[in-house]
Design a protein that fits this description.
The protein is of the alpha+beta class and 376 residues long. The protein has ten helices and ten strands.
């Protein structure tokens, strides 16, 4: 079993209190069928910000929490035990920290002040598992700006975003070194959004269509052709985050199945006395502890400056597959009560099926990352 140090335990306790006070009441409202808005989440988000839990990976010089990867994952794991988690300032693309002058004022400062929301548009209809070669969206320099044409798909968080960071090819060669990143404001007339409801997504996803979408030169972020390198860093951290989300959900499901098994009486005895139920509970506990140990051990390596791209892919695979099994067992133990959307179990059953696909399907990660390294 993995044990946190004293400082990390205190951090987890802080998150647990904020979630209990602000987010669990929202979960109860959601389970009653209420529609929640961004305004409903603001009190918890502000409480987290006042507690120093804002911009978890953001450097201290920019006002962020600047957490180590171990601490960041611990916060995410605890936060995701709730069906209505806090967004600790949202996600940020690391390359934005290199911006200067007017670009910094336009794209970084609003994020740091928590006055803007963004989303990340990489995947395309032609294929998302190999973006370096599948990106067909093209940006062409034109006068004092750029014109973008193409399409992105399965883009999450667009509903709440003020702008989109889109990745487009600036040359015809299908290579990673000619992909750049551009910022496109949501109201740009060349940006058309089509809603795409998806399994488990409260706000759904969108297809984004860029038709002669014009942006100025300031909207071109970073060096020409350097966009994909920044995307890879974001994806790597994102895979760790997904693993931590899966662990948090799995732990809550485990807690729920233990409580229910102790309380539920069937055929003259508690469910917890049945050997088949005990086996499901023990199997879940073992899987959760194994994955927690692996994830935080790998995160320690990352904090020491070691390259953990392989580990991030490994953890994304194992944790997202594990949580599916744990949720399924929890629903089985709860019976019909676990299948209603008045229970968080049904919501997680929907949500976590997608986790094995986004940020790299399990099969693609095994082939493109793990097998390539193991068989080199």
């Amino acid at each position: 079993m993995y044990e946190f140090n004293e400082e990390t335990r205190a951090l987890v306790d802080l998150v647990r209190r904020i979630v209990k006070d602000y987010q669990m009441p929202l979960e109860a409202r959601l389970l009653r069928g209420e529609k929640l808005t961004l305004a409903d989440y603001r009190p918890g988000r502000e409480a987290a910000r006042k507690a120093g839990l804002w911009g978890l990976p953001v450097p201290a010089e920019f006002g962020g929490a600047n957490l180590s990867l171990v601490d960041r994952l611990a916060v995410i794991e605890e936060n995701r035990k709730c069906l209505t988690p806090i967004r600790f300032g949202g996600e940020i693309i690391p390359s934005l920290f290199n911006l200067k002058g007017e670009q910094k004022a336009r794209y970084l400062d609003p994020f740091l002040s928590d006055s803007t929301e963004t989303c990340f548009a990489l995947t395309e209809p032609g294929g998302g598992s190999d973006p370096a070669r599948s990106i067909a969206t093209h940006a062409k320099q034109d006068g004092d700006g750029w014109v973008i044409n193409g399409s992105k798909i399965w883009i999450s968080e667009f509903d709440n975003a003020d702008r989109v960071f889109v990745f487009a090819r600036i040359g015809r060669e299908k290579a990673a070194n000619n992909i750049s990143m551009f910022a496109v404001e949501k109201g740009n007339p060349g940006l058309i959004a089509r809603p795409l409801p998806m399994l488990g997504y409260t706000h759904g996803t969108h297809q984004l269509i860029f038709e002669d979408c014009r942006v100025d030169n300031l909207a071109h972020i970073g060096a020409e052709g350097g966009g994909f390198k920044g995307a890879q860093k974001t994806l790597n951290l994102g895979r760790y985050d997904i693993a931590a989300v899966a662990l948090g959900i799995a732990q809550r499901c485990y807690d729920m199945m233990v409580e229910h098994a102790k309380q539920r009486v069937l055929f003259g005895g508690a469910l917890s006395e049945k050997q088949s139920i005990q086996a499901m509970i023990v199997d879940s506990w073992i899987e959760i502890q194994q994955n927690r140990l692996m994830m935080y051990t790998c995160a320690e390596k990352d904090d020491r400056g070691e390259d953990t791209r392989i580990e991030a892919s490994m953890m994304k695979i194992t944790c997202t597959e594990m949580v599916g099994r744990v949720i399924d067992r929890a629903i089985q133990i709860h019976g019909a009560a676990g299948c209603t959307y008045e229970s968080p179990l049904a919501h997680w059953y929907d949500n976590q099926r997608m986790a094995r696909i986004y940020e790299g399907p399990s099969e693609a990660l095994k082939h493109r990352v793990l097998a390539r390294q193991l068989l080199a």
